[in-house]
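Take our chain:
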Amino acid sequence: MSLVERDPGGDYDEEGEDRDEFHIEQLVEDFSDEPPIRHDVYPESEDDDEDGPARARTNMRRGNGELFYKQAFFNRVAFKEAVLDYVLKTGRNLKQYRYDKAKIGYKCVGVNDEDGSKCEWKVYASILSNDRVWKINKFVDKDSCIPNGECEMLTVPHIARLFVDKNRDDPEYFMPRKIEEIVMRDWKISITRPQCQAARKTARKWIEREYDEQFHRLRDYAAEIMASNPNSHVEVECITDDEGKDMFNRFYVCFDNIRRTWMATCRPIIGIDGCFLKNKIKGQLLVALGRDANNGIYPIAWGVVKVENYDNWLWFAKLMKEDFGLNDGDGFILMSDRQKAS
């Protein structure tokens, strides 16, 4: 865990910033409030439906795959993702024939089985110096070939981008063989096992780089919380190593709106517990939980530490005591190991 900047080196994703912006826009567009919690209904287990959980686990959310003349995109990555969605929807064998910072073009390399003529399908998008969005300036929507399960556009980077989120959530499940099966099952496109192996390796590199970059900008995240949520409490604590570099030690956050809501309307009961953080970034997540009038449980403060011990719990408790005005604890109930409470 480090806050120092790391030299990326190796396999670098030159479109990383554009892709981050694209994903943020997609998350905002797809955002919906969580459904209300029903405390008298037990969730279904994975054994209740053999096909349901497995299908949901491998479900890949994509766009509608529609392209049309003068269609606008807020950056080049959005355009490339739209073309990829078209490929996944139609199975066309597209290939990129033009690419620079302001122009991107794709064409179909399939042939007509009857007379051997080349397919005329083509799409071209660009951005002008006086414009802020990419637009499709040429679209020849003439499909004369039949999909045969091949797609030159679906290279290792494209496959990696399709499965990067899945590898982030469940890296042990989405192995090369599973990736190959999903692409064939869902989109009827044939890819090779070496492609899947290279794509998974590339996706894992991107994920590891994301962790390093996110830790490097942890202070920026704390500053953004304070700017967008005034009166909140955020602490980023570091220690200095032998080389004079800042190393992550622990992190704490308590949003002012959550704090005020809990103090004004919720029961004076606080549950505290910790859990392990897995994958590349190890450590412990410490959480303080409150219970509202609808019997719903939600976090009111949380922190990240390198190890769960007496000193870190004491540090977390002192900050929580200050934020929620617990004073000497009179009138409040504090419960630990909440999952074992009856």
The chain has two domains: 16-28+49-213, 231-340. The longest strand covers residues 246-254.
